[in-house]
Amino acid sequence: MSLLTERVSGAWRLLRQATGEAKWDDYVARCEREGVEPMTRRAFERHRADEKEHNPQARCC
Amino acid sequence: MSTSTARPADSGPRSGPNWKSIIIWTIVAVVGAVCWAVLALSRGEEVSALWILFAALASYAIAYRFYSKFIAKTVLEVDDSRATPAERLENGRDFDVTDRRVLFGHHFAAIAGAGPLVGPVLAAQMGYLPGTIWIIVGVIFAGAVQDMVVLFLSMRRDGKSLGQMVREEIGTVAGIAALIAVFAIMIIILAVLALVVVNSLAESPWGVFSIGLTIPIALFMGFYLRYLRPGRVLEVTAIGVVLLLMAIAGGTWVDEMGLADLLTLEKETLVIALAIYGFVASILPVWMLLTPRDYLSTFMKVGVIVLLAFGMILAAPVLANPAVSEFATNGQGPAFTGKLFPFVFITIACGALSGFHALIASGTTPKMVAKESHVRMIGYGGMLMESFVAISALIAASVIDQGIYFSMNAAAGATGGTPETAAAFVNGLGFSITPADLEAAAASVEETIISRTGGAPTLAFGISLIFTDAFGGGLAAFWYHFAIMFEALFILTAVDAGTRVGRFMLQDTIGNIWPRYADVSWRPATWSASALVVLAWAYMLWIGVGDPLGGINQLFPLFGIANQLLAAIALTLATALLVKHGKVRWAWVPGVPLVWDLITTMTASWQKVFSDDPTIGYFAQASAARDAKASDELYGVAKTPADVDQIIYNSTQSGILQAAFAVLVIVVVAGAAVTVVKTLRAGGSLPTTEVPKVESKIVAPSDFFATKEEKEAVREWEASQKAPVS
User: Fold this and answer.
1) How far apart are CA B147 and CA B357, in angstroms?
2) Which residues neighbour B25 within 8 Å (Cβ) at sequence distance 6 or greater?
3) 74-133 in B: which are within 8 Å (CB) of A?
4) How far does the CA of residue B473 sit from the closest CA of chain A (Å)?
5) Whether B225 contacts chain A with CB within 8 A
6) Contact map slice: A 9-48 vs B, CB within 8 A
7) What ipTM was estimated for this complex?
């Protein structure tokens, strides 16, 4: 049973990494470790959108 | 403990043969050999598509297990104790250590699009065998090798781009030639992809309705993520996919809603709409349209591929085309002209060997690789996956009745556009079909199917056949439009993203002379650069749409050759760099595919430029049309004197572009040859721009599935990371 839940949570984490949502989890975890007050999710996601704005990725054929 | 960098269980302390592994791989090899034998020996009997599917899967498995491992260990000497740029330069933005499976997904989503779906569909006119062999053999020895080696070389140089590497490692002239080639090829690719969309949406109110709705859906998702619930990507993607499926299904009622006339658009109208869309999309902030559309298209991409694999196995369709058709040898195929050699190798670019991948393998991906050994699964494995998509497309095209296939893929000038004339044309080719058959096929998907060139409608038709067979009947029209949506969606994403990348390249280049222009937040620069890029591809698209000989017939060879010539540049760089690194004995690994690629592309370019046959040579075509004009006659399928002028103009332009590409590649290859000779004279190696080794501190498994030892090592390492730093 614990193996199954471990698998499912592992797959869920991978999926969140694939969509980029895990970046927020990582950021919050890091802030906690360093004892810093994290910015709001809204501000955080705007930051990320601004980066994407300046780093376009080509999509192939 | 944090300095433990030992490669976890790289070779293992195992001694003696591993019988389990030997037995498994022997079985895989036997399955593959049997499938290939059946494909090679069957003539004139019913052949199941599953033989192709399993021949491909077995070949991929063996190539991945043995050849890619050989390249990683012996040729490239990947070193997991060496920190990757992602680890050394980690900034949480572009340099970002990424889980290998996640990066595999990102990389695959970036490389695979409509290309592997279109080429094989067109090549199916020569029979199923030439395409199958080239896709499988090509990917194993050329395409996947190129992707993996370029990814590795760029990773060792902090993620430098292809153009930069050519300039620094081969020479300035070669670098400039590569840069021009890259830009020009991108424009051609965008134009051809857009042409595929135009051809599948023209006169198709259902298609226009569904695709049109993706814009408000993407906007909704964008605003949702920006203002309502920032960052909840999975949630909004789920909503988006549901809306998308509703948009496809809703198309059935276009008639009842009274929108049919409004949404029945001509090709010219669609070109203008696409150009406006492309311009607006490329200057809007990415969060509004591009990012959410990318989520949708990635989801659809993965979903459809999985669905198609299951569908093929469930339906086990029988191939309708011969192993090798007469068009392979007489070169007069209706979908595109030219003989098997070299044109199969040009028509199928993506899926076997695609130069464009070198741009992605030297762009975003190398900056995110966690461990050097991951280049194998991401570079080689990612390309194998794209090849599988190409094989699926080939199968989907090959199960369609030949009469229908050729009615769909011959230019309107040949079929005459009505079921009667099309049936007559196809019967003239030696297939039997009645106008009633064509009408029934059209009614089954609620579309017109005569001269729906461009590959997408044919693929959609094939997919609808397979899915109807596999998942129950009655939904053929839904599946057809589902497949059209799936292709159009990622072509539009490619157009958005490609225009944006082209804009950055243009701004960067002009910025060398006029620094302010490179400022990506200066509106006059971004707007004008976007407009220039859009005008460039829209111009090519306009030409293609108005071409009396059929735009796909004219432009697709140009696209294929351009893409393969880009591959020649990438493989040239790879070969020259292996030599510079003192590995001349392994230079054949990229060298052999390079030679093959040069032979096919240069032969094709030569024929396209110098052939006397007006159906193949662009200039021969122009001059034949000019002769006809001089004697006041119409030429070929032209119906008016204006058509003749159009043919003269288009053919001349395509010929010039074709010749220019070939010359650019020759410049790069010549530069590389000089570099190789210099290196050999200097004693077999020369300094390169490779970044010196820094010890890696990260521990991560190296392949798709972690071994027991790797898992143990990762667990140990993670525990040591969490321990307080003393």
Assistant:
1) 6
2) B62, B65
3) 92-94, 98-99, 101-102, 105-106, 109-116
4) 32
5) yes
6) 14-21, 23-24, 41-42, 44-46
7) 0.94
Contact (Cβ atoms closer than 8 angstroms) between residue B396 and residue B388: no
Nearest to A24 by CA among A38, A6, A8: A38
Residue B9 DSSP label: T
List the beta bridge partners of residue B47.
Answer: none
Residues B47-85 pLDDT 10s: 999 999 999 999 999 999 999 999 999 999 999 999 999
Q: Are B550 and B453 in contact (CB under 8 A)?
A: yes
Instruction: Quote the pLDDT of residue A1.
Output: 61
Q: Which of B484, B634, B614, B600 is nearest to B554 (CA)?
A: B614
Residues of B in contact with A44 (CB under 8 A): 230-231
Q: Number of helices (H) and strands (E) in chain A: give both, helices first.
A: 3, 0
The CATH fold of domain B20-89+100-204+264-681: Sodium/glucose cotransporter (1.20.1730)
Q: How far apart are CA B347 and CA B145, in angstroms?
A: 20
For B495, which residue in chain A has the nearest alpha carbon?
A: A59
Amino acid at B411: A
| Structure confidence at residue B9 (pLDDT) | 44
From the candidates B90, B93, B718, which should be mutated to test the interface with A, based on the most A CB atoms within 10 A? Answer: B93
> Is residue A56 within 8 angstroms of chain B, CB to CB?
yes
Three-state DSSP at B318 gives strand
- Domain-by-domain residue ranges, chain A? 2-54
Q: How far apart (Å, rounded) are the C-alpha atoms in residues B666 and B671?
A: 8
pLDDT of B109-123, one tens digit each? 999 988 899 999 999
> In sequence order, which residues have a C-beta less than 8 Å from that of residue B44 and are 6 or more positions away?
B322
Backbone angles phi, psi at B682, to 5 degrees: -80, 10
Show the low-confidence residues of chain B (pLDDT under 70). Answer: 1-15, 723-726
Task: Determine the number of helices (DSSP H) and then strands (DSSP E) in chain B.
Answer: 32, 0
Residues from chain A contacting residue B497 (CB–CB below 8 Å): 56-59
The answer to whether the CB atoms of B231 and A44 lie below 8 A apart is: yes
Task: Decide if B501 touches A, using CB distance below 8 A.
Answer: yes
